[in-house]
Amino acid sequence: MTRLVGLCLVAGVLLAGVLFPVVGGAGLLLARVGDRVTGPAALPADVEPPLMTTLVDADGEPFAHLYDQYRVLTASAGISQAMKDAIVAVEDHRFYEHQGVDWVATARAALRNHASGGVVQGASTLTQQYVKNLLVHVVARDDPLRRERLRVRTPARKLREIRMAITLENTLSKDEILTRYLNTVPFGAGTYGVAAAAQAYFGTTPDLLTVPQAALLAALVNSPTALDPEQHPDAASQRRDLVIDLMARHGTLVPEVAERAKREPLGVRSPVRPLPTGCVGADPGTGFFCSFVVDQLVAGGFDLERLKTGGYTVRTTLDRGVSAAAERAVEARVPSDTPGVANTMAVVKPGREEHRVLALVANRDHGVDAQRFQTMLDLPGGVANKFGAGSVYKVFTAAAALEQGYRVDSVIPSPASYTSRVFKGGAPGCPSTGEPDTRWYCLSNHDDGYPPRMTLRQALATSPNTAFVILEERVGLDAVVDVAHRLGMRRTLASNIAGEPPDPDSPRPELRVDQAGFFTDRQNASFTLGPAPSSTLELANVAATIVGGGTWCEPTTLVAVLDRHGEPVGPPPSPCEQAVPEPLANALAAALSDDDDRGTAAAAARAHAWARPAIGKTGTTEEYKSAAFLGATVDYAGAVQTFNDSPEPRAVCVGAGPPLLCGSGDLYGGTVPAHTWFDAMTEIHTGLPVTPLPPVAEGFRAKPGDR
């Protein structure tokens, strides 16, 4: 009985609308009868549909997309007339005649549905459909229960839609309503709106949709699942042809064109798919870069949900040419299917006002399928190499020494072995300090081929361990750690030697930080030998800081973030800092300039006929589980880390074939990492003029009697 009363009420209201065909009369009647219906008569004024966010490279080309609903807003001028005619013909052929509600069709449908005892005919206008789709797919998209209630056919819901449709018609033009409808309605295959559907089904844009294409999309609105052209091509074809016939019947298509259109195949892509979402679906080779972009946006105040619904255009610093060269290099030296061995590279553009990240690549793909050697770990951008960068950290000891008065050619001792009387924590075999279970730190060089004394420049090129532990004693470990932080190892130094963040409630001493904010477990002599987890990107940025006159800038992937209206919305760039004085940075660059000539990377440089002035430093960890190379010209800075990325902590061996996990190990910074760097940088620098490194100021040159 309740249902009958409700239907009679609706029918009475709708039939009354026939007697009062003007909006004013119908609106007055609805206002009286509809006082039993709660809810607003107008749509929320500030509601905006969720839109896809697009990440674009330095040339403005998209490489990744983030969305909850695959939708791209399109202006009326960007939608073909065929698409507009097709949707009007099949869904509401009196669209341009009514004022939001087709009273005759609605009354007829109400009476027919009542007579049949069920819903056999609908009569919602395009305006009403827009109202319903906006409420279901936009307003209530995060509320499943509300969304389900909005889908249930009830007289109350129908009256609300009618009231909103009439209000909408008094507010917007027909073309605006039609455009909004076409930007909101789902077309199946995970698409919302005509732009997304045009791409997914036909690989085109909505302005280029042909008559048969537009007719198929218009057909799908009725039932995207039942009319899926991949699963049900016959049903989709029949419904498409019906739309074409209706277009001809209502005068928007001449019969001859209609008949030709019906003879066209469906022509949908195979498979029909929306654009992939997330960094896992980014263009090949850009997944790690995408992940770092998202991290920077989140750090700048954008939460992930906002990114997936805001419709932003994120202009990034990604250089496809540089990235492709780096990717080829890392995979040439360590193929992507190499078990247990990761090869990562980051490239940064040096500068005084910003450090643009041009490439973040690895021999792995960014993804969730470990069987295909994919990983969700941020290999090049994060602190992923848990075994350390090795002797690359000697750069920081050298920088601290230069700050304290050493010069590029100051002579330092480099004995074959050395026992510190400053640093404790030595391994078994080192002399006891006299305290229980405590030994002095002792170590030896890699071999006996080093002279007993050498210049700082020679020491950086040939990398004797003893020389830098002695230097670390002289300048103080605090100074070394401090300059490492200033030059760029900021995220790296924010984690402990196990790669973990601080835990103020932990009783474990290795999770404590000192007054400077550095982990106390960094305070040991081995810091200069680089045993702790390190970021490839931060190493590259250190190189950019050195050749950039000592100016540290946070490595950024962001050029601008534009909202859906094209307005910039941040985040603001971080200010740069003068990490070390420019003369000191130039002196450090000069001290690092012999590695490709007489140092540990010389063989790799000769193999590439490298002749450009550059800085460089190799690093190898004690058990050969990782190795690194840091290098830069004045044009590009980059770093490579090669390391064991398996759960099994084994060494890495380098032979005639791809590197592999092994028992003893012979991976050095001058092998895979240096060769990867020169592979990439030789290609990246092609065509560029040869530019010298900055000159060394007089105060950093050696004088007679210098220590």
Automatic annotation (TrEMBL):
Q: Which residues form the Penicillin-binding protein transpeptidase domain?
A: 446-625
Q: Which GO terms describe its molecular function?
A: carboxypeptidase activity
Q: Which key words are in the record?
A: Carboxypeptidase, Glycosyltransferase, Hydrolase, Multifunctional enzyme, Protease, Transferase
* Entry-linked InterPro entries: Beta-lactam/transpept-like, Glyco_trans_51, Glycosyltr_51/Transpeptidase, Lysozyme-like_dom_sf, PBP_transglycosylase, PCN-bd_Tpept
Which Pfam families does the entry mention?
A: Transgly, Transpeptidase
User: What reaction does this catalyse?
Assistant: Preferential cleavage: (Ac)2-L-Lys-D-Ala-|-D-Ala. Also transpeptidation of peptidyl-alanyl moieties that are N-acyl substituents of D-alanine; [GlcNAc-(1->4)-Mur2Ac(oyl-L-Ala-gamma-D-Glu-L-Lys-D-Ala-D-Ala)](n)-di-trans,octa-cis-undecaprenyl diphosphate + beta-D-GlcNAc-(1->4)-Mur2Ac(oyl-L-Ala-gamma-D-Glu-L-Lys-D-Ala-D-Ala)-di-trans,octa-cis-undecaprenyl diphosphate = [GlcNAc-(1->4)-Mur2Ac(oyl-L-Ala-gamma-D-Glu-L-Lys-D-Ala-D-Ala)](n+1)-di-trans,octa-cis-undecaprenyl diphosphate + di-trans,octa-cis-undecaprenyl diphosphate + H(+)
Q: What is this protein called?
A: Membrane peptidoglycan carboxypeptidase
Q: Which organism is it from?
A: Saccharothrix longispora
